[in-house]
């Protein structure tokens, strides 16, 4: 190679003049084995108010392949002014994503070659010259030994991917999922589990796996199983279309042996009656590959009717696909399929920018948290005597219907959409079909103008409603504006690509992590053509408390507790809080303006989850109205840069509430000092939603209400009750009183320090220790203060001394 003056060359020059000649001279094919500027991630979406932007991401300078779809090595180049190994750590990260053992770092002087296949005692990283770059055959041989491939596996391992000529290729995690599955199957593994988050292309991944196994003739007859008709149709018409005439959808309970690729609903080939078991029309060894979509929904359960199909074709290789493997005492995906060969999580998808991030708005309703109890003998709207007990959040819309609660939820949804965009696609998850219908009706009544424009603005899409189900395709079609709001129970929890869904509403009791992840997945798909880069979850049933579960793997951008009033009030700071930018989001990104911009019924339910649609009529349900339903104060929560939940907003709520009444510290202290009883102010503020226990927990000090408010709202240094009591004693305030009065006041000060001002404002405190040793209540008052007025005056002066503020500097 001719001598070059490398010192002034840029990184691009180094690649062109040094790296490419070296690898081409080593025998690498520029058409099929070399790709430059390989972008592995899309860049995480950062939401700034109503502007969505992506983090900038770097690309791998060069990726070397044995053939398309089978990566071998990463090359990272830097300008010559850098040390030769400068790009190594960056290259190692790319190699991890691609699951390759070879990394080369260069500045043009040569290469640092990292060989993870090196035997024990051999050098892991070594410097080689440009002329010593290894050949494709050399790296492939090392790679095969590292992977442990046998000669029998190679025809399957090296089978081409399907290429439609459009330039579309699998993302890095899809490559890993496909290749690891092919490796497992070619190595004789008959049960394979693949876990990929909703929206990451499981069906496309499954297609490439089937294509390569089919084309290599490793598997000749394939059955693809799903439990939703729309899933089968979507698969057949989209990702599986290249199978063409070799593929059929099983119908009429007939399996046609003339086809090689069979797509079927479980329900189409089995049933409780023997004559419904169409799968028995063919021999147990007819299929040699079965792919089970959403395998967590039944196939792993030993007593499932679906499992009967898998047991019948037990000799076939069976690949389970799921976003949420199910692990309970009764059902275990891993017990049946084994540990996943590959996992790509929701968190990874969001971090990589392939899935949409989301904000959470939590709304707490008073009857949900405090409960509701009927009066004795009260009857519901159907004349049924209501069981006398306290009904709470788990009961509402399951065994107890309160019309006012339904209306409050519907009004809050409506107000939220009015503040954001009334045409944002919205899914409202309800407890059952009856709840979904009542919610539909409430939303229709609250949106008359929208419904007049199009009567499909709100639709109930549930398993029992053929008219609603017929609108499912329109709802998920980005080009179709209507329906806008879909109320559902089980039908839309999984599987359908609702790419433009911007609002997911949870008014359903959810305790299953499996179901929770599936429901969250309704909003995680990105569609930049229609401005869908993020979405919001509006939670009425504390379902998002599952974020705290260690099994949840996708931290939200923001968690905000709020009230329906704040959502409805244009003057509230709801939008500012929701759109607040965290410090760790202040990065250089390329902004994209956000314009205003599915699933059948599942079979697994939770103990307190929604009812299976066929069982609803078996549950006794009371229906009442005329119940006062309101909201309580809430907190706003954020996840910081370290993924820790930080609570900030109860202070904000308290500050906003108090400043409405008392604009300055002087106004507040004047009101406090003038009050005959501080208890009255404390109670008044409680009525406005200030919860002292929550505020005290956030402040983290043993303060009484006065100090908490001065500190949180007006920024005053906080004093504990003990510190205030000690300050009173230091001022020798008691000397103007008699010894008897001083003894009483000194003990009252101790009571204040221990229990607070409310304790000493009750006259009954004089009956407690140590006062009981001073005499009876009348005797204490007469001896120390002359009469009740004298005692009250002394107590008022004591409180003034307790709450005396230090002088403020000018």
UniProtKB/TrEMBL annotation:
<dbReference type="InterPro" id="IPR013670">
    <property type="entry name" value="EcoEI_R_C_dom"/>
</dbReference>
<dbReference type="Pfam" id="PF00271">
    <property type="entry name" value="Helicase_C"/>
</dbReference>
<dbReference type="InterPro" id="IPR027417">
    <property type="entry name" value="P-loop_NTPase"/>
</dbReference>
<dbReference type="GO" id="GO:0003677">
    <property type="term" value="F:DNA binding"/>
</dbReference>
<dbReference type="InterPro" id="IPR029464">
    <property type="entry name" value="HSDR_N"/>
</dbReference>
<dbReference type="InterPro" id="IPR014001">
    <property type="entry name" value="Helicase_ATP-bd"/>
</dbReference>
<feature type="region of interest" description="Disordered">
    <location>
        <begin position="578"/>
        <end position="608"/>
    </location>
</feature>
<keyword id="KW-0067">ATP-binding</keyword>
<feature type="compositionally biased region" description="Acidic residues">
    <location>
        <begin position="578"/>
        <end position="588"/>
    </location>
</feature>
<dbReference type="GO" id="GO:0005829">
    <property type="term" value="C:cytosol"/>
</dbReference>
<dbReference type="GO" id="GO:0004386">
    <property type="term" value="F:helicase activity"/>
</dbReference>
<keyword id="KW-0547">Nucleotide-binding</keyword>
<dbReference type="InterPro" id="IPR001650">
    <property type="entry name" value="Helicase_C-like"/>
</dbReference>
<dbReference type="GO" id="GO:0009035">
    <property type="term" value="F:type I site-specific deoxyribonuclease activity"/>
</dbReference>
<dbReference type="GO" id="GO:0005524">
    <property type="term" value="F:ATP binding"/>
</dbReference>
<dbReference type="InterPro" id="IPR050742">
    <property type="entry name" value="Helicase_Restrict-Modif_Enz"/>
</dbReference>
<dbReference type="Pfam" id="PF13588">
    <property type="entry name" value="HSDR_N_2"/>
</dbReference>
<dbReference type="InterPro" id="IPR006935">
    <property type="entry name" value="Helicase/UvrB_N"/>
</dbReference>
<feature type="domain" description="Helicase ATP-binding">
    <location>
        <begin position="183"/>
        <end position="343"/>
    </location>
</feature>
<keyword id="KW-0378">Hydrolase</keyword>
<dbReference type="Pfam" id="PF04851">
    <property type="entry name" value="ResIII"/>
</dbReference>
<dbReference type="GO" id="GO:0009307">
    <property type="term" value="P:DNA restriction-modification system"/>
</dbReference>
<dbReference type="Pfam" id="PF08463">
    <property type="entry name" value="EcoEI_R_C"/>
</dbReference>
<protein>
    <submittedName>
        <fullName>DEAD/DEAH box helicase</fullName>
    </submittedName>
</protein>
<keyword id="KW-0347">Helicase</keyword>
